[in-house]
Every structure is written in C-alpha cells, then in structure tokens.
Amino acid sequence: MQVRILFFGVLKDLTGRGSDLLNLPEHATLGDVFIHYEEIAPRLGELAASIAISINQEFAGPDSQLKEGDEIAFLPPVSGGLTDPESNLRAQLPRHSLIVREKIDTQEVLTKLKQPADGAAIVFEGVVRDNTRGRRTLYLDYEAYEEMALKQMDDLAEQALQQFPIRDVAIVHRLGRLEIGETSVLIVVASTHRAAAFDACRWLIDTLKRTVPIWKKEYFEDGALWADGEPFPEEIPKAEGSHSGRPASK
Q: What is the tens place of the pLDDT at every residue in 31-69?
C-alpha cells in the first residue's frame, strides 16, 4: 500500500523533504513509518519523545495500523481554509476559525463578533517582536498543517464555548512572512461578563500554542532557525517507543 508523508518545521529540515510517498506492506503501523525515516535521519530518534504524528489529521500512536492512501504528518512541538482578502471575514468563518495570509484586521473581526447583549469583548493579539533571546529579529515566517490546524482551532473554540459561560469566539491565525509589529494570531471572546471572557481567552491561546500544528521560523541578522515549540500535552501520543523499542535520547 502507498501512503503520503508530510514533514513540518524543523523535521522538514532534518529529513530534507516536505513530503514523500512511501510504499508499505499490509498491516504496517505508524511505528514502521517512524523506523523507516529514523534510518534516513537518525536525529529523529533523539527527538522522538517530543514528536507527535497524525493520521488523516488526527493524532495517533505508534501502534496505529495504516491503510492505502493515508496521510501521515510528522509534527514537531508547535509554536504557536485560506481566504480571499476582498471578502467578508465572518462570512468565511465556517464556525469560529480562520487561517489567512494577509494582514489580520482586528477591528473588523471584533465589530462583527460583538452583539448588544455582550458586556465584554476580550481581544488577544500575538505580535511579532523585534528580538528573541537577545538576538535582533528581522521577520518571522509561519507555516502550518493547514487542514488539521483549522479543524483543531474550531475544536478549541467549541470546547471554550462549553467550558466557559461565553457567547462567541473568533480565532484567526496568519501564515507566511510577518514583519515586526504585525499580528500573527488574533483571539476575540465575547460574553456577558468580563471574568469568563478573560478566562476563556487565556485558555484558548495557551492551548492553541501547545496543540495546533503551526510553526514559526525566525530570521535574524546572522541566520535563521525554527523556534523552539512548547511540548505537546501528555495526552497526545508521541513517536517515542515506535522505533526498535529503545528509549529516545533526552
């Protein structure tokens, strides 16, 4: 059987490819795929404890069995639907989320989300800063596993609506090159009372940065590197244990 493999962020650099087609025997597992690429790029084994893998845009463990045509994505820790810039943002939101490549218009999203019954509308903007760990940043470049990212952003919005007494949520993330001072991610939460909106907004950005497959590459005066991502939550299966039964190097 043949499956499609996708690599993102630093894993794309380590393996020297962004995608691949791989022929596997019947009853092959996700662990078999990891072993194959670990032989090509041994560094994958050292990073196994921090790598998540998905099958058809759903996180999966190394014992998961594969079938013809599956799409498998290798996902490093994340750092954290395309649009037509001429069209209405809210009209494009299938539920609550959007991924764009043009500048994010915060005021437009806020205006379209608010309703007369709202007593609070909390806005969070993630902004590109001009420095990282003492190095001058020139610009950032964001990439994503777009279909999975959009689905997970919508799922987070739905979870927030269930967990917090809020009325509505909008999440917009930008991809591509971003200059200093530009907004990379926007979260707007509307509710009757401000406390719930603050709590939901904080939970959304913290969870998004840990789970949604979006990565950033930082460009400096003296080079470029993929930003260190936040570890995936414990409940998300990792590649560790999928290769030769030996523990990953720490």
A: 999 999 999 898 888 888 889 999 999 999 999 999 999
CB atoms within 10 A of CB 122: 20
Cα–Cα distance measured from residue 208 to residue 214, given in angstroms and rounded to the nearest whole number = 9
Q: Is the C-alpha dihedral spanning 250, 240, 145, 126 positive or negative?
A: negative
Give helix 146-163 / helix 194-211 axis angle, nearest 10°.
150
Own/partner contacts of 100-107, CB < 8 Å, gap of 24 or more, are 100/172, 100/173, 100/174, 100/175, 101/174, 101/175, 101/176, 102/174, 103/174, 103/182, 103/183, 104/172, 104/174, 104/183, 104/186, 106/183, 106/186, 106/188
Whole-angstrom Cα distance, residue 158 to residue 150?
12
Lookup: tokens for 37: 């690429």
Task: Examine the pLDDT at 88 and tell me if it is beyond 80.
Answer: no
Phi and psi of 245, rounded to 5°? 75, 5
Nearest-angstrom CA–CA distance, 128 and 141: 10
* Residue 102 pLDDT: 95
d(CA 115, CA 66): 47
Q: What is the largest CA-CA distance in the chain?
A: 60
Q: Walk across the sheet containing 120-127 and list its strands.
A: 97-100, 168-174, 183-191, 120-127
Task: Give the span between the Cα atoms of 11 and 21, in whole angstroms.
Answer: 16
What amino acid occupies position 66?
Answer: L
The model's pTM is 0.72
Dihedral angle sign, alpha carbons of residues 223, 143, 132, 182: positive
